[in-house]
Design goal:
Radius of gyration: 26 Å
Distance between the termini: 54 Å
Largest sheet: 4 strands, parallel
CATH superfamily of the largest domain: HUPs
CATH topology of the largest domain: Rossmann fold
Structural class: alpha/beta
CATH architecture of the largest domain: 3-Layer(aba) Sandwich
Number of strands: 15
Bound molecules: adenosine monophosphate, zinc ion
CATH class of the largest domain: Alpha Beta
Number of domains: 3
Shape: globular
Helix content: 40-55%
C-alpha cells in the first residue's frame, strides 16, 4: 500500500492533552469511531459541524492511502432526557407527543440526517450501526462487567460501580476529573435511585410499564444504557482497541469517560489510542443546542428562511465557513462570518475554474512543490484546515497573477498545481464546484437590502406611512420582511 506525502500526522489527543504522532495499530489501516446522532429531532448545524470535522479527517486519511474503517452509529434507544440515568427516553417521548411509534420517529429523523449529510457532500461511513441492532452484544458486555466485579444489579437494573472501578483504575482520566470532586459536586435526591453511589451509571435499566422500547435480558425486560451502546458497537467492528474515537466536546464527560471505564472493566484495555473532540458551534455568541432552542437547522440556513441571517447560503459555502476554523476552536456562526466565507469561497472557485485556461511558460516563478508540501503540512498538523485554506488562497492569488501575465508557470507545475487544488478543495475539504449565479439571488438580496434600509430610515423619521408601504408592497411582490432582534431579514414566498 502506498501512502502519499506521508509525513507523520500529528493528532491532538484529548486523553494526553498533547499533539501526538499518529501511529495506527496496524500499518496502513485506521479504525475510527464517531458518536452519531440521537435520532429524535432534526439535526442542527452544531451537529453538522462535528460530523463535518470527522468527514474531513476521514477524507484526508483516505486520500493519504489509508484503508479506513469509519463507524458512525445511530442512537435509536437508551438515550434518556438530559443525558441522565432516569427519565423518559428521548425517542419514546417524541413518539408519545406525536402519537406515533418510536421506530417511526427513528426512521423520520434518520432519513432527515442522511438527507442533510448528502446535501453537504459527506462521505458515508463504512458502517452505520444502530443501538437497537446490538442489544445482544450489549447484554454480553454487561454480563462480563458484572462477572469482573464492576457491575451490580438492583431491582432489575444494572449499574457500573464507579467507586470500585476507581480503586484499581482511573475514572476521570479523559475529562480530567477526580472522583472526589465528583462526589462533592453531585447532588441527587434521596431515595430516587437504586444506585450505590450517585456517580455510578446505568448499564441496563428495567423498563417501567409504560416504556415501549424494551428487550428481555437476564435482569429484566428493559433497555441498555446510552454509554454502553458505543462501547459495544465500536469494539464489535473495530476491535477491543482501535485508533481514533471522535465526537463533540460535550460528550467527553460522562459519555466517553464511561466508554473507557466500561471497556477497561470488561476487556482490561483502554479502548482508544487517540481521542478527538470537536469544539462547539455557537449561534451569535451562544452555544447551539436543542435544549435551549438556540439553533438553526441546515434547511433554514440553506433556504434563507430563518430569523438570523440576511440571505440563503449554498451548502459548500457553509462547509467552507466551517473549515475556515480549526475543529478544536469554538466557532461562532454569524451573518458577517458567512458573508465573508461566501466571498472567499467564490474567489477560490473562480481561481480553480481559471486553471484550465492558464497559459504555460518555460519556467515557474514560484516553487509549486514547496507550496504543495505546505498543504500537506497543514493537514498533517492536527488537520489544520484554516492553514490549508490560507495556502489555497496563496495559490488563488498566484493563479490570478499568471492570468494577468505577472507570474509564469511551467506545464509540469501547472499539472501539479491543478492536481493539488483538486485534492484539497474537492477530495479533502469536500467542497463542490459551484459557479456563482450573479444574475439571481445575490442581486435580489442587494436590492431588498436597499429597501430594508429605506424602510428603516422612514421609521426613524416617523414616516410610518412610507415604511408600511415598503413592507406591504414587497409582500405583494412575494417578499416578506421579518423584524428580528438582530435586524430585518426577508424570505421569498
Ligand atoms: P446528539 O444528537 O445531541 O447526541 O449530538 C450529536 C453530535 O453533535 C455529538 O457529537 C455532539 O457532541 C455534537 N453537538 C451537539 N451540539 C453541538 C454544537 N453546538 N456544536 C458542535 N457539535 C455539537
Ligand atoms: Zn457514543
Amino acid at each position: 500500500m502506498q501512502l502519499f506525502e506521508h509525513n507523520p500526522i500529528k493528532i491532538y489527543n484529548s486523553l494526553s492533552g498533547k499533539k501526538e504522532t499518529f501511529t495506527p495499530i496496524e500499518t496502513g489501516y485506521v479504525g475510527m469511531y464517531v458518536c452519531g446522532p440521537t435520532v429524535y429531532s432534526n439535526v442542527h448545524l452544531g451537529n453538522v459541524r462535528t460530523f463535518m470535522s470527522f468527514d474531513m479527517v476521514f477524507r484526508y486519511l483516505k486520500h493519504l492511502g489509508y484503508k479506513v474503517r469509519y463507524v458512525r452509529n445511530i442512537t435509536d434507544a437508551g438515550h434518556l432526557e438530559n443525558d441522565a440515568d432516569a427519565g423518559e427516553d428521548k425517542i419514546t417521548k417524541k413518539a408519545r407527543l406525536e402519537q406515533i411509534e418510536p421506530m417511526e420517529v427513528v426512521q423520520r429523523y434518520t432519513v432527515d440526517f442522511h438527507n442533510i449529510l448528502n446535501t453537504f457532500n459527506f462521505l458515508p461511513p463504512s458502517i452505520e450501526p444502530t443501538a437497537t441492532g446490538h442489544i445482544i452484544e450489549q447484554i454480553e458486555l454487561i454480563s462480563t462487567i458484572i462477572e469482573n466485579g464492576f457491575g451490580y444489579e438492583v431491582n432489575g437494573s444494572v449499574y457500573f460501580d464507579v467507586h470500585k472501578f476507581n480503586e484499581t483504575h482511573e475514572y476521570g482520566k479523559l475529562s480530567k476529573r477526580k472522583l472526589e470532586d465528583l462526589i462533592h459536586n453531585t447532588r441527587e435526591l434521596d431515595g430516587q435511585s437504586d444506585k450505590r453511589n450517585p456517580q455510578d451509571f446505568a448499564l441496563w435499566k428495567r423498563a417501567e410499564p409504560q416504556h415501549i422500547m424494551r428487550w428481555p435480558s437476564p435482569w429484566s425486560d428493559g433497555f441498555p444504557g446510552w454509554h454502553l451502546e458505543c462501547t459495544a458497537m465500536s469494539t464489535k467492528y473495530l476491535g477491543e482497541q482501535f485508533d481514533i474515537h471522535g465526537g463533540g466536546m460535550d460528550l467527553k464527560f460522562p459519555h466517553h469517560e464511561c466508554e473507557i471505564a466500561q471497556n477497561e472493566a470488561a476487556k482490561g484495555k483502554s479502548p482508544v489510542n487517540y481521542w478527538m473532540h470537536a469544539n462547539m458551534l455557537e449561534l451569535n455568541g451562544q452555544r447551539m443546542s436543542k435544549s435551549t432552542g438556540n439553533t438553526v437547522n441546515p434547511d433554514e440556513l440553506l433556504s434563507g428562511n430563518n430569523d438570523f441571517f440576511s440571505k440563503a447560503y449554498a451548502p459548500s459555502v457553509i462547509r467552507f465557513f466551517i473549515a475556515q476554523s480549526s475543529y478544536r476552536s469554538v466557532l461562532d456562526l454569524t451573518n458577517d462570518g458567512l458573508l465573508a466565507s461566501e466571498k472567499g469561497f467564490y474567489r477560490l472557485m473562480d481561481a480553480v475554474n481559471l486553471l484550465e485556461k492558464l497559459e504555460v511558460s518555460k519556467a515557474s516563478t514560484i516553487n509549486i512543490n514547496a507550496w504543495r508540501q505546505s498543504c500537506y503540512d497543514a493537514m498533517n498538523d492536527d488537520f489544520n484546515s484554516p492553514i490549508l485554506i490560507a495556502n489555497l488562497f496563496e495559490a488563488a492569488k498566484y493563479i490570478n497573477q499568471i492570468k494577468e501575465g505577472k507570474e509564469t508557470i511551467s506545464a509540469e507545475d501547472l499539472a501539479t498545481l491543478t492536481n493539488t487544488m483538486n485534492i484539497f478543495v474537492f477530495d479533502v475539504l469536500g467542497l463542490e464546484n459551484v459557479v456563482k449565479n450573479d444574475s439571481g439571488t445575490d442581486k435580489l438580496t442587494g436590492a431588498v437590502n436597499v429597501l430594508i434600509k429605506l424602510r428603516q430610515e422612514a421609521r426613524a423619521n416617523k414616516d410610518f406611512a412610507l415604511s408600511d408601504k415598503i413592507r406591504d408592497e414587497l409582500a405583494e411582490a412575494g417578499i416578506l420582511l421579518k423584524d428580528g432582534k438582530d435586524g430585518t431579514t426577508y424570505s421569498v414566498n
